[in-house]
Amino acid sequence: MAQTLIETDMRIPNALRFAFGLCQRPPPAPGKHDEVANFAAVLLPPRDGASEPMDCDEPVAPGGLRMLFDSSYIRAHDEDAHFGHAEAGVVGVADGVGSYRDRVDASAFARGLMTKAYMEVVTGAPGTHVCPSTLLERAHQATAAAGTAAASTAVIVSLAGRTLKWAYVGDSGFVVFRDGRILRRSRPQQHHFNCPYQLNSKRDGLTVAAAAAVGEVPAREGDIVVVGTDGLFDNVTDDELERIVRMGTALGFSPKHLAEVVAGFAFEAAGCTNRDTPFSVLGRRETGGAFPAGGKRDDITVVVAYIASHYI
C-alpha cells in the first residue's frame, strides 16, 4: 500500500495541490516567475457558469463507441470492490457498509455483488448490451441467496451502443463529463447524514427494483465517465473534479493516470483539516451544529472510462 501511495503521489501535479490549497508553498525567489502558480492558472482555471449538469438534447453522430477504462484503489478499511469488462462496456463499484465492521467482514457483500455482476457479464451472450439495473438486480439476488454477510452501496454504468446507462443504490456514484463540463451526475441516496441506502441479504432490506436510481444519456466520442465510492465524493467537490478532468484532458492523461490523480487528490483532501469538503459542509448543514472542517478517511475507489470510437 505504501508503495502504491508513493507512486500515486508522484503522479499528482503540484499545480493541482496549489490550486486547491492542499499544500503550503514558499514564495518564489525575488525576480523569479511562480511557475507552479502559472501552470495552475493555465490548466486549472476556475469553473465558469452554474454548477448544474448540462442539458443533452443534441443529435448523436452515427458509428460505434467503446469504453476504455482503468481504476485506482486506495485502501483504508479494504471494504470497497469494483469490476469492469471492456468488451461488454460496463464498470461497477461497491462499498461495504462500515457499521458492520465490528461484527462481520464488512467487505463481504460489496465483493459478492461485484463478483456476481462480473460473472453475469462474462457468462452472457457476446455482444449483448448490458442493462445496469438488471445486472445489479441479478447480482444482488445471487449475493443475498448465498447468505452473504454485511451490506453495500453500489453503482453500475454501461455503454449500450451509443447510450450511457446507470443504476445505483446509496452513495457510490458517477459523473459524466463532456467538453470539460459535467453532463450528468448521480445524487447520493441517504436515509439521513452518513447513512446511505444499502443492499443486503435481509428480507426487509432494500431491493434494487425498489430503491435503485436509474437513467441514461446519449454518449459521444470524447465523453469521460468517473465512477467512484463515497471516499471520492465525500472529499472532492464537483468544481474540483471538473477542473481535474479538464487538466487531465489537456495533459493527455490515460484513464489509469487520471484515475490515480483523482484518487490521490481525494486521499490528500481526506486528510486535510484546514479546508472544507462535501462531507464537512453537509455535516454542518444536516446536524445543525458545529462540524469540523476537513475530509473523511475512507476507502477510495475511482474508475475512469473514456468513450472512444471503435476505429482508431
Total E-strand runs: 13
By secondary-structure content and strand pairing, the structural class works out as alpha+beta
Q: Kindly state the mean pLDDT as a whole number?
A: 87
Architecture, according to CATH? 4-Layer Sandwich
Q: Are there runs of 5+ residues with pLDDT below 50, and where?
A: 57-61
Enzyme class: hydrolase
GO molecular function: metal ion binding; protein serine/threonine phosphatase activity
Protein name: Protein phosphatase
InterPro entries: PPM-type-like_dom_sf, PPM-type_phosphatase-like_dom, PPTC7
Describe the structure using short key phrases.
312 residues; alpha+beta; Phosphatase 2c, domain 1; six-stranded antiparallel sheet; PPM-type-like_dom_sf; protein serine/threonine phosphatase activity
Summarize this entry quickly.
The protein is α+β, with helices and mostly antiparallel strands and 312 residues long.
SSE blueprint and pairings:
Blueprint: H1 2-10, H2 14-19, H3 35-43, E1 65-74, E2 80-85, E3 90-96, H4 108-122, H5 132-145, E4 151-160, E5 163-169, E6 173-178, E7 181-185, E8 190-192, E9 195-196, E10 199-200, H6 208-211, E11 213-218, E12 224-228, H7 230-233, H8 238-250, H9 255-271, H10 278-287, E13 300-309
Antiparallel strand pairs: 1-13, 2-3, 3-4, 4-5, 4-10, 5-11, 6-7, 6-12, 8-9, 12-13
Helix pairs in contact: 4-5, 8-9
